[in-house]
Amino acid sequence: MTARRSRDGVLSSVLLLAANILIPAAILVFATGFFPYKPLLPGLATYDTVVDYGDPPAAPFDRVVFMVIDALRSDFVYSENSGFLFTQSLIRDGAALPFTAHATSPTVTMPRLKAITTGSIPSFLDVVLNIDEGDESSSLASQDTWLAQMKAKGTGKLVMYGDDTWLKLFPGTFDRAEGTTSFFVSDFTEVDNNVTRHIAGELQNDDWNTMVLHYLGLDHIGHKGGPRSPHMVAKQREMDGIVRQIYTAIDSEAHLQSTLFVVCGDHGMNDAGNHGASSAGETSPALVFISPKIKALQSNLQSPMPEDESFQYYSTVEQSDLAPTLAALLGFPVPKNNLGALIPDFLPFWPNRRDQVQLLMRNAHQIKEIVVAAFGQQIFETDTDVADFTEFKSDYQELAHDWKELAESYGRDDAKLIPSILKWLHHAQDVLSSMASNYDMSRLYFGQAAAAAALIAALIAAARFTNDTAASFIPLSGIVLAYGIMMFASSYVEEEHHFWYWATTAWFTYLGVKGFNQRGNTSGRREILSSAALLLATRVIRSWNQTGQKFAGGPDIVKMYLNTNPALLWYLISATYLWVHQNLIYGLSGLPIWLSYTTAIGLVLAAFTFKVAFTLEDAPELVTDFARFSLRLNFTQDASLIARARAVFIGLALMTAVTILFMLARRRISVGQNGSSTLLTIYTLLALTQSRPQNIPLYLLFNAQRLVLSSSALAHLSPTELSATSLLLQHAAFFALGGTNSIASVDLSSAYNGVASFDVAAVGFLTFVGNWAGSVWWALATYVMLVEERSRRSRRERMAETEGVEEGEGRGGGEGGLWKAHVGVLTVFVAASVVAVMAACTVLRTHLFVWTVFSPKYLYCVAWSLGQHLVVNVLVGGVFYWLGVIEGK
User: Fold this and answer.
1) N-term to C-term CA, the chain
2) Residues 115-144, buried b or exposed e (16+ Cβ, 10 A)?
3) What is the rounded distance in angstroms from the CA atom of residue 334 to the CA atom of residue 57?
4) pTM for this one?
5) Residue 878 CA to chain centroid, in angstroms?
6) DSSP secondary structure string, 311-370?
7) CA dist., res. 225 & res. 293, Å (int)
8) Best-predicted range by mean pLDDT among 229-233, 308-312, 869-873?
9) Residue 813 in this model has a pLDDT that exceeds 60
10) Strand residue runs (E) in 103-242
11) What burial letters (b/e) apply to 656-686, b meaning 16+ CB within 10 Å?
């Protein structure tokens, strides 16, 4: 019997290991098929000699200053509350022509710069590469861009100052350059001053034909404080001053007389100050063409404009339209992979109608070559169907038919031909932009098969380790099934938080009813009260932050009570830090009293004053006099934020190391609790450090829920039910702290705590903790409860003088039975969620929202599976559990 149980345990362990190896393998294989690079036409475009359009018309400009202000939402420039007063005066005087440039998702810097410079639609994979500052695989060095065309003209050098993404995209392109990292979001000032200091000198030089400036400070302010940050208007005025400086030089310096000045945003931002998704604010950056020569167009538009919630000011153009427009205005061929259409507002620069038609036909012919490269020349030669592209057949047949009419009409009635060409250009742009990606279907299917194999292995392992009845799996099965179905609806993916809130509420109700039925009237009432307390805490937690997409800006506790009442906010924050302080003293009670009190007070005070200093820099309107006074208590008034954060991290690391050493030595660092509880308290202080101030009081509610679970319902939960509880609370906590399935909700505000310069490992770790802080807390809290449960079972076993693991360590589980059972159940859900998300992305790959909803969900699925599950629940949680086992022996 013992040998058979041992063999079962080994087999189950192998299956569990295999499942957790297959999950990342499946994710990688599927991703390589779902996010491939699209094929591009090689080489630089030249003026077409095959079609005789005549000599290209003369360009009105010979050099360009291209100024990108990161996250420059349209209303930041055009509205009545804007700080761009000088720019608005140029619009009124006709020296500036304004547009709202539509930026397609993903609205992050790298793919947007690709769209701006090539005129193409970038791959969604660029949203991942955008995060890796060291990545060079996304280089545009070999692709046709307007920068490459300006370099090929040979009329001057190319210079660049600002976001070093340009240097990564265009290695070897710029003759003079200085890059600044785009991810150090705590810096509002130096990151822009490092750009501005070069401008005066470069405006005096006449050896360049292209100057690129990319300012980051406004984007950083948005990430830290949102679009209504008190720093925002001041930054806009600073940027407006740069516009004045450059325009004044163009207007007065002889060598700059034919300079085109373009001011634009790469993307906008949402109400939270983030970007990456497809809300109106994120997809609506400003685009302004500036030059004294533009006065000849006699636009003289109204400025400023009234506030517009849709952010659509003046005419709306596609961001990709920049490439062919610059080609016409600066005199070079349209880049080969361009999908943009020349902005017709500039056609009056060429009074001759024949010149206008030629420019548009060259643009149309270039786009026609992209269609030929995709489907062959025969589509424009015959009326046959487009094989293998039935879903786009009618669109491409219509394009081919209309192109023939344009080609036949060229040279006849130019006045009537212009609107026909513009219509064809925009139709072609819509069709090509919406064409499905070149998915590798074999990889998609293979990845799903691997994920399905992981699910089967996890199911077998979980059933063996938990040794529960079939009825215990019913709630978990319901969660898995409902979640899987939900992944096929875009609105449910966007509003996923409701699923976890409702499921958690239903679960706690179920626990209360179950406890009442099992324990009878007296004890049952206690279970009902415990369930009510859990439900009340859950109700408050779900109201803390309004998240998702539909009601993202709606009222919640943070907006209605904490942001408007800083005193209440700091009372709650102080209460949270005092709770951690008391827990820390209790957790270190095995040390000499002077040492435990000194350590606890010093570390908590350092963490609290860092949070005050951080908030004072980030959102000073939230800091009360009481909070400011605390900065003087630890005599570090002059310390920098980096030094303060490092002091906290070093203190946490040292305390963690000491606690682990005590546990390995089988000594209690606390008189009344296990070392795992002390480690949880230490992590709580890290979570508070990485959380926004408004979210800090949530940890009081999390702890209240944990205490209720530990003292009541936990004693009656089967391993499967305990894991289901942990699963629900981990996900509910993620959304309660403001998380969503949108890339725009990734919080970078704490990503640079203690970091002086970009480091992918440090920033990646801090970003993950900052966004999954609540989920990690519940993962570790579950292991604390597992250690406590194991201690209770050990006491019962000793009292009953039994042998083996009959009390519930799990069939064949040995010392790690509870851990393996818990990991097994979590692996079942993770594998099932990966299968569901992959299936949804495959089935809905041609869906309108595939890049705005389902692809971001896949990336979040990767983070949940690899980061939260494998790293936190399996690896870190396993260390928690085994340290508790060693300590308890």
Assistant:
1) 26
2) bbbbbbbbbbbbbbbbbebeeeebebeebb
3) 14
4) 0.81
5) 28
6) ---SEEEEGGGHHHHHHHHHT-PPPTT------GGGGGGS-SHHHHHHHHHHHHHHHHHH
7) 38
8) 869-873
9) no
10) 157-163, 176-180, 208-215
11) eebbbebbeeeebbbeebbbbbbbbbbbbbb
CA distance 733 to 729: 6
Is the pLDDT assigned to residue 366 strictly greater than 60?
yes
Element (H, E) at 228: none
Q: What is the token pair recorded at 627?
A: 């909070």
Rounded to 5 degrees, φ, ψ at 270 are -90, -175
With a CB cutoff of 8 Å and minimum separation 6, the contacts of 438 are 36, 38, 39
DSSP-derived letter for residue 713 is G
Sequential DSSP letters for 365-428: HHHHHHHHHHH-THHHH-----TT-GGGHHHHHHHHHHHHHHHHHTTS-HHHHHHHHHHHHHHH
Selection from 51, 154, 531, 78 nearest residue 313 by Cα: 78
SS3 53: coil
Phi-psi region of 483 (alpha: psi -120 to 50; beta: other; left: phi over 0): alpha
Say how far apart CA 552 and CA 565 lie, in whole Å: 21
Lookup result for tokens 């570790």:
780
- Contact criterion met (CB below 8 Å) for 882 and 787: no
Q: How far is CA 294 from CA 278, 349, 351, in A?
A: 32, 9, 14
CA angle 238, 146, 324 (to 5 degrees): 95
CA of 524: how far to CAs of 98, 348, 527, 547, 805, in Å? 69, 83, 5, 36, 29
520: its two tokens: 């009878």
Query: CA neighbours within 13 Å on the CB side: how many for 414?
Result: 13
Structural tokens at position 357: 């038609």
The 10 Å Cβ neighbour count of residue 439 is 16
Nearest to 321 by CA among 344, 302, 298: 344
In angstroms, the CA 816 to CA 881 distance is 8
* Cβ within 8 Å of residue 420, ≥6 positions away: 402, 405, 406, 409
Which strands sit side by side in the sheet containing 315-318, from one edge to the other?
176-180, 157-163, 208-215, 63-69, 259-264, 286-290, 96-102, 315-318
In this structure, are residues 718 and 515 in contact, taking their beta carbons and an 8 Å threshold? no
Element counts in the chain: helices (H) and strands (E): 32, 8
Lowest average pLDDT, out of 36-40, 196-200, 269-273, 657-661, goes to: 36-40
How far, in Å, CA of 157 to CA of 162, rounded?
Answer: 17
Query: Is the distance from CB of 133 to CB of 183 less than 8 angstroms?
Result: yes
Collapsing DSSP states into helix, strand and coil, what is residue 177? strand
What distance in Å separates the CA atoms of residue 780 and residue 677, rounded to the nearest whole number? 9
Closest CA to 437 of 819, 32, 870: 32
Q: Which two structure tokens, joined as six digits, stand for 76?
A: 């930041």
Q: Which of 749, 745, 744, 740 is nearest to 767 (CA)?
A: 749
At residue 17's C-alpha, the angle toward residues 466 and 815, to 5°, is 50
DSSP symbols for 480-496: HHHHHHHTT-HHHHHTH
Q: State how far the Cα of 321 lies from the Cα of 342, in Å rounded to an integer.
A: 6
Q: In the prediction, which pLDDT does 138 show?
A: 52
CB 105, CB 278: distance < 8 Å: yes
Tens of pLDDT, residue by residue over 368-405, are 888 777 666 666 665 544 444 444 456 777 888 888 88
Query: Which secondary-structure segment (H or E) carries 66?
Result: strand 63-69
Residue whose structure tokens are 């410079």:
117
User: Do 95 and 292 touch, CB atoms closer than 8 A?
Assistant: yes
Instruction: Please state whether 97 falls in left (phi above 0), alpha (psi between -120 and 50) or beta.
Output: beta
Please name the helix (run of DSSP H) or strand (run of DSSP E) that holds residue 624, with its range, or none. none
